[in-house]
Amino acid sequence: MSHLRAVVRLLGMTGLTGACFFAWALTRLLNLFSPGAGRWTQERITVAWASSMLHHMGGRIQVHGEPARIPHMLVSNHLSYVDILVLLSQGCWTIVAKAEIARWPLMGAIARSVGTVFIDRSKRSNLARVNREIAGILGSGRSILVFPEGTSSGGAAVLPFKPALFEVAVDTACPVNIAVLGYRTGPGLPPAQEVVCWWRDMTFPDHLYRLLRLPGFQATVSFGASSISEPDRKSYARRAHAAVSELFVPVFPQG
């Protein structure tokens, strides 16, 4: 039964993504006549897509607080690719993602087409280009989503935040807000640390298949009540890490 569940969900998610991407692409025509209306429509499609994808995966979401309504940089701990769906179901941010995602079949093409900013952390010269792109996005009135841990983890603790991308917050004086993510599975099910969190040497296809076999899982997102302001990027990284860690609940092995 769990194998059939995974196949049916995967087919549903594929069809949903194709339909939403087609609708999103059509809004580019609307942008020619009314850029504001076109962007608003694209954002609504993105939020609807993320919410529906979570539903197809069997995810239920519990939300504490709400995201800022003005252009800002949102920083969050990082546990899984599911994080993006959880956050985009609550609002629309341009995502900063690792460069290898741009090379993924299908998902890479979709990510590129919707304006994802890709970063190669192994190249210091890449950071200047990424920071310029982020500054341009914030300047256009849009918000940005950053995972400053630089990688996903099993959720035992929040990894140290890398300060490089906080330079934009210093240069543009944009608000910095936090989000804190967590996952649980039900009694008798494989632990969230192993089937929702995506880390260690887990391959994407195998992990997604095991996730879709689950009857369901619980996602939690908590938004910080106020913005953070610091004079330099290292101070930003330390304070944001402390704020996220304070609200973070470890994803224990027992689910």
Walkthrough of the structure:
The chain is of the alpha/beta class. The chain has one domain (53-247). The protein is 47% helix and 15% strand. It contains 9 helices and 7 strands. Strands 1-7-6-2-5-3-4 form a 7-stranded mixed sheet, with helices on both faces. Helix 4 (107-113) links the parallel strand 3 (94-98) and strand 4. Helix 1 packs antiparallel against helix 2. It is globular. The relative contact order is 0.17. The mean pLDDT is 91.
Number of domains: 1
In whole angstroms, the N-to-C terminal distance is: 22 Å
Q: What is the 3D shape?
A: globular
- Count the E strands: 7
The mean pLDDT is 91
**Cα Rg:** 18 Å
Counting DSSP H or I runs of 4 or more residues, the number of helices is 9
What oligomeric assembly is this protein in?
single chain
Proportion of helical residues: 40-55%
Structural class: alpha/beta
Largest sheet: 7 strands, mixed
Strand order of the largest sheet: 1-7-6-2-5-3-4
Strand content: 5-15%
